[in-house]
Design brief:
This protein is of the alpha/beta class and about 300 residues long. It has helices at about 25-35, 55-70, 85-100, 115-130, 150-155, 170-180, 195-200, 215-225, 230-250, 250-260, 280-290, and strands spanning about 10, 80-85, 105-110, 135-140, 160-165, 185-190, 205-210. The radius of gyration is 18 Å and the shape is globular.
């Protein structure tokens, strides 16, 4: 890779698992190769769309190994590390580093609430257990303990914490983050935000599940934003926004897995007890993908 910085479109990959719990490595590898061919700038296994909260460690390892092998150094692989304890987060980070990942997406899972001090300790421990660049992940809608602005500012002083992905849907919060630490952390949008708008206020790209279904269209939008062609970018963005809305309306993994199934990828259903994409959801996704010339 010529550029060691992360930027552009990073699809949050699904985790294809068969009925017996075995990762469908061939299906995942094919998806990775096709996404790279479509021009994406990186791959993110074990994000929210990857159902990290529902996978065993063996399944997580199989997913990441498959993605690293399929990427073959052509684009960076930023693997999701999520745990409830510092020790487990450090173990996962070291393992993914050894597998050849290019970065870590750091997520904190919590059953009991964790204060700012514990939150700082968790993310700083991940950064201290590797030399890989770290992407902080913040999503107050799903996380019991989230990254506050003061904690983000403290973490931004750590050398290898270099990025932040915000999924709050609060663009004002995102601008506040950029105003406070934009000189130290580069910011990625999520599907909860309007990616073109995040690019306009200083973002460097987006990490999101919908890019699995419309990679070429997502890359075209990113290119228009980088060129400052905002009118053209918003024309593309308005069309793509319907997919973001479907993603928010239906179960995250079900929406993307259902769409990929329609496109010919045998990725299977979300892991139980999650429900597969409903009939209404399937109709929504079919209509959107047809409109986007992605089916």
């Amino acid at each position: 890779m010529d550029d060691d910085s992360f930027h552009g479109v990073f699809p949050y990959l699904v985790s294809p698992v068969d009925a017996s719990g075995v990762v469908k490595r061939d299906v995942l590898a094919r998806l990775c190769r096709d996404l790279i061919e479509a021009g994406v700038h990186g791959l993110t296994p074990l994000g929210s769309t990857g159902e990290f909260a529902y996978l065993t460690w063996e399944q997580k390892a199989a997913v990441v190994e498959t993605v690293v092998e399929a990427a073959d150094g052509r684009v960076p692989v930023v693997a999701g590390v999520a745990a409830t304890t510092v020790a487990e987060a450090e173990r996962q980070t070291a393992a993914f580093d050894a597998m050849g990942c290019d970065g870590v997406l750091a997520v904190m899972e919590a059953y009991f609430p964790v204060g700012d001090g514990g939150t700082y300790d968790y993310f700083s421990a991940i950064a201290g257990s590797t030399s890989l660049p770290i992407v902080l992940y913040t999503n107050p809608n799903f996380q019991r303990s989230d990254l506050t602005l003061p904690v983000i500012e403290r973490l931004a002083a750590i050398d290898n914490i270099r990025y932040l992905k915000d999924a709050s849907s609060n663009t004002g919060r995102l601008l506040s983050i950029i105003n406070i630490v934009g000189d130290r952390l580069q910011v990625f949008s999520a599907s909860a935000h309007i990616p073109a708008c995040v690019m306009m206020i200083g973002g460097v790209g987006w990490m999101a599940g919908p890019a699995c279904l419309v990679p070429a269209q997502s890359v075209a939008l990113y290119d228009l934003c980088r060129q400052g062609e905002w009118d053209a970018a918003m024309t593309v963005q308005r069309d793509l926004w319907a997919l973001n809305q479907a993603f928010a309306k239906h179960n995250l993994a079900a929406c993307i897995k259902g769409g990929l199934d329609l496109q010919g990828y045998d990725v299977g259903a979300p892991l139980p007890p999650q429900a597969p994409l409903s009939a209404d959801g399937r109709r929504d996704v079919v209509e959107i993908l047809r409109r986007l010339d992605a089916l």
